[in-house]
Design a protein that fits this description.
- The chain is about 25% helix and about 30% strand.
- The protein has six helices and 16 strands.
- The strands form four sheets. Strands 5-4-3-2-1-16 form a six-stranded mixed β-sheet. It has a six-stranded mixed β-sheet with strand order 8-9-10-11-14-15, covered by helices on one side. Strands 6-7 form a two-stranded antiparallel sheet.
- A hairpin with a 5-residue loop joins strand 14 and strand 15.
- Helix 1 runs parallel beside helix 3.
Length: about 280
């Protein structure tokens, strides 16, 4: 399998869509100029807004979202594959005014090849007092997605999905050799769990894990952990940004590493049926 030069884009996405595109565009151009053929952005690339009323004022459908449209054009111009880690868009479900938190994979002509709506919404009460109820504003998806690329299957997940190993195992068994984990992790959970979870999912699946992150103090007042990371199938960290500033993380993926990891520990072929605990 052909080696793949990849880039993860770490952002501090503004609240206004026009500003969000102006923020991410030069980072994508920098990644393409460095030779990346697949570029991944974080969760909520088109805007990052906590306030529901303010969010609803800019929320629109995927086909009318200006950031999605501009990023499609940019991918075509640069001749790169681009994963919009997620865009917050209207879900399209009649009678449900919640948004979709949606990944979009764009090919090097600017066409949307695959989409995925975040399956697991972030409803937590952290020990620090932070309280999040993503289910109030985001409609969860109902299906897993492995997208075909010139380099092999790309499994799609978003942020909180990282805590559900069964999803990642299903993606690997369906043909993924790499799994995207675009995120906007909170600081307390990022500091405690981010790298451990990413490495665990790589080891369990024998996949590359590609995790571009939001980072730092945002306009809407939230803080995100950053530390965008690429993990190899054996569990070692290939590349990482050790900060929470916007930036570009580059690496080349050798997919022979997937074969080596899965040959050494063929866990994906060892499932057994078992009775539930009593």
């Amino acid at each position: 399998m052909t080696p793949l030069p990849v880039a993860l884009i770490q952002t501090r996405t503004p609240t206004a869509p026009a500003a969000a595109f102006a923020h991410v565009e030069p980072l994508i151009r920098e990644a393409a100029a460095a030779g990346a053929k697949l570029i991944l952005t974080p969760e909520a690339t088109n805007f990052l807004i906590q306030d529901r009323a303010a969010r609803d004022a800019v929320l629109t459908t995927e086909d009318r979202d200006t950031v999605v449209g501009s990023l499609r054009a940019l991918a075509g111009e640069l001749g790169v594959w681009l994963l919009i880690g997620s865009a917050i868009v209207r879900s399209g479900h009649e009678g449900d005014d919640r948004a979709a938190n949606r990944s979009l994979l764009i090919d090097d002509t600017g066409a949307v090849i695959a989409t995925y709506d975040k399956l697991h919404v972030y409803d937590v009460d952290l020990p620090t007092g932070e309280r999040w109820r993503e289910s109030a504003s985001v409609r969860p998806g109902d299906g897993a997605v492995v997208a075909e690329t010139p380099w092999g299957g790309l499994g799609l997940t978003i942020c909180y999905d990282i805590r559900f190993p069964q999803l990642h195992r299903a993606l690997a068994k369906a043909g993924a050799v790499m799994i995207a984990v675009p995120a906007a992790f909170t600081v307390p959970t990022g500091e405690a769990h981010w790298e451990t979870l990413l490495r665990a999912r790589a080891i369990e699946t024998g996949c590359y894990i590609l995790a571009p992150a939001q980072a730092g103090l945002h306009e809407d007042g939230r803080r995100t952990w950053g530390r965008s990371t690429i993990v190899a199938p054996w569990g070692e960290v290939v590349a990482r940004l050790d900060h929470d500033e916007p930036g570009v993380l580059l690496a080349t993926l050798d997919f022979d590493a997937v074969t080596r990891a899965r040959s050494a520990v063929p866990q994906l072929t060892h499932d057994r049926e078992f009775a539930g605990p009593q």
